[in-house]
Batch of 4 targets.
Target 1
Amino acid sequence: MSRVRVLLYLRGDDSEPIERAYHRVSGTLAGTPGLLGNELLRSPHDPAELAVLSEWASLEEFDAWERGPDHRASTAPLRDHQDGTRAKPFAIYQVVSEHRADEFGES
């Protein structure tokens, strides 16, 4: 099983409501099986463009949560902020290869 990263694309001229919604959702999701963590990201080139990047232990655990009864209610605070300019407001990626900074030798 490989880890999975999920991107949820958000958009808003005022990021404060998005940040509040992100913190509400994150609090609700604390302790969710398989969820390793998440981050709220903002584009340095377009401050209205944000994304939530979540990391899951496996696709199976993400799918189980997504199909579960709490998924829609727990993520509802972010729904109004999804980026409607995109064909899909989210993307799912499986980690197929990885290099960490601590793996590189010193020069």
Target 2
Amino acid sequence: MFPHPTPAFVVDEAALDRNLAILAEVKRRTGCRILLALKAFSMFSVFPRMRRVLDGCCASSVHEARLGRETFGGEVHAFAAAFSEADMREIAALADHVTLNSFAQLRLFQHIAAESGRTVACGLRINPEHSEGTAEIYDPCAPRSRLGVRRAAFAGETLHGVTGLHAHTLCEQDAAPFARTLAAIEQRFGDLLPRLAWINFGGGHHITRPGYDLDLLCATLAAFRARHPNIETVYLEPGEACALNAGTLAATVLDVVENGLPIAILDASCACHMPDVMEMPYRPRVFRDAAWSGQAEPGPAADRGCDPGVKAHTVRLAGATCLAGDIIGDWSFDTPLRPGDRVIFEDMAHYTMVKTNTFNGIRLPAILLRGPDGALRTVRAFGYQDFKSRLS
């Protein structure tokens, strides 16, 4: 049973531990360092647990860098498409590594890092111009991408003060695309590698996904390190892989209306609580289970949502906002949905809590934690003041 109000994000610590065990194995086999990408998952109440395995975190803003420094510990790395001078001065006081996105930003801000009174490593993000992405919105190597320095832009420039390179090119991908990307990096930037002390291969590695080729990843990294012994540290910075399949979003049916098919209106919103469903777009896994108690995966008796028409009762799941397109998707279940029924969306820990919004004043989902013993506790509940405090 799940006796808590909805909507609610529920993170399952046992599932989180499974991911961390896989990441620990990668570290053991390759000697690389692994950072949590805060842009994907910033639930700082579980950071002490993650810090047992991960070496630190990477941030995309001053606020993320401060959160990492205050609540995660270890190394803090920072990258953004562009920094203001004010932001760079704050970043230099928080981060151990700062990666710039252009030579112009490097020239403008390198002195701030040098004058910070701290040891701050400076790097450049590169664009290998090798695309493995299928969705252009998530492809840093797409045509006319603003992310990373292309090889041609290095002409006439100096790498004075730059100790490493950063290449983030993947999105939810296996080890084979990484191996091909690495070959492209060595082909285009190979003459620069002997000068480096570190390299960061970014995120998008779906390391903890069932079926991921862990052996190929480890072999690829080990071979790279053998070819380039001068590079002391190799970093990976997964975000999604850290929290993959480790959390759910529980919702309640408020009403069911008819318009060609039953439309169940939920207290969870696609637009407010899981915007990637609309942006990607993608169709999340969903199930119903009266005995569900917060675990990350459905139990054996769960009524798993299938494609429309596969099971007896097809229904559209939608949010309660005034946005006409606040549609999560269509599924079929064994039994019809009625007001008061619970539905649970799987794999909702990453890119959800960090992207929620209060459009229409819709309530933000509470954040719950399920311990290894199955006990549930509410980490944070939100209310009117959270909505009001963002406005003026």
Target 3
Amino acid sequence: MNLNFISHQIDKVWDYLSDPELWLAILGGAIRIVLILLISWLVVGIVRKIVDKLFVQRQHGPIRIPKRREDTLKKLIKSVVAYVVYFMALVMILEVFNFEIGPLLAGAGVAGLAIGFGAQNLVRDIITGFFIIFEDQFSVGDYVLAAGIEGTVEEIGLRTSKIVSWTGELNIVPNGNIDQVINYSARNGLSVVDVNVPYESDVAQVEQIIQEVAETLPDKYEFILGVPEIIGVQNLDVSHFVVRVIAETEPVFQWAGERNIRKEIQDKLYKSGIKIPSPRIVTYSEQEMDQLTQERQQNRG
């Protein structure tokens, strides 16, 4: 009896698999899925080219936007279009498998209420991302400090932003975690250089040497905007006094400005016979100490 039952089931499976209509339906479904994916890919590609072309035309129009802002908007528009098109493609593929989309979406709405509290972070990320882009807090190519991460912005999305550290690491940061931003690219930078000079040196002579160096820097380094300014003696230390020099630079070039200004001043001071002070240790013999003690006592007397 068991053998007859098994044989009957095998015959039913064989009849089902050997039905030409089944294979025609599978073939038709596969073709539809391939066409849906192909059309989606073409639509995304065409829209991306249209977006690029529109922004190129805008560059020659009366209203222009900064390149960093342009790169941000282009990537965002392309990303949103891709999400929408591929979501529609997924819905169409589900229909190929005879899934009822209406009840599925209704169920998703009920489930959405159930997981609403769990999706708060997602909603927060999207809202924060919208305001980052709308307020132009930072754009692609800017050097920023955001969420404790410092680097160059590679991409801004509605949910996450990508920041590349200066050592090469790619950091993907949820927008909701960005509560404070320092944008080094938004304004010109300021290089601040403190020059340590031994007390044996004349202040006026040192400032004159630094001034001579400062006047040559804008021609040597394009990112230094104008002649650096000598603020004067900033501090008095144990073995030296400190002369402060400041210079305006192009955005993000303040650190390069400090390195190059420091180097040029150091070279000039060294050639002028003024050496950077260093800690000194003075030793006295017992006889010299006795002599110094006697001289102090005589001076007090």
Target 4
Amino acid sequence: MTKLIRLAALAAAVTVVATPAVAAPVSASPTASANVRILKPLELRGIRNLDFGTIVVGAVVGTDTVSITQAGVLTCGSGGQLTCSGTVASGQYNVRGSNNAVVTISAVASNLSNGTTNLLFTPNAPATVTLTSSGAPGDNFNVGGSIGLTAATPEGLYTGVMNVTVDYQ
């Protein structure tokens, strides 16, 4: 009988040890929070067209590059075979959105065309702008760029569209 009681006690002890313990619910410490930042939609509009002025192409060897900086400073090739004149200007855009937000600027290459021939236009834009005067009037940024010319570049008025987009960072 004593063996039977010991055996029953041992079986009860094994059952208690083998039963998983149920943990009491515990809250996170420290607690986690949820956040959201609401921004105004971005508005982008062109203010000023980029203008390379007038370029006379001489006996260019290879390709010579004409470029305008974001500040509107023109570099008229490097080989002395180009003559640049007239009014030049970098392009200018205005962006509106939420105050103190950083906006990324993307400008991709495009073609300037005289109707039959294309010139590759490579833009030069700032990577970002911080909106410090959002709403009205917004913040302005300038876009420069470059074109490559050869002695065989046909004459004509070349026009095209600058492909510029903005997005919140």
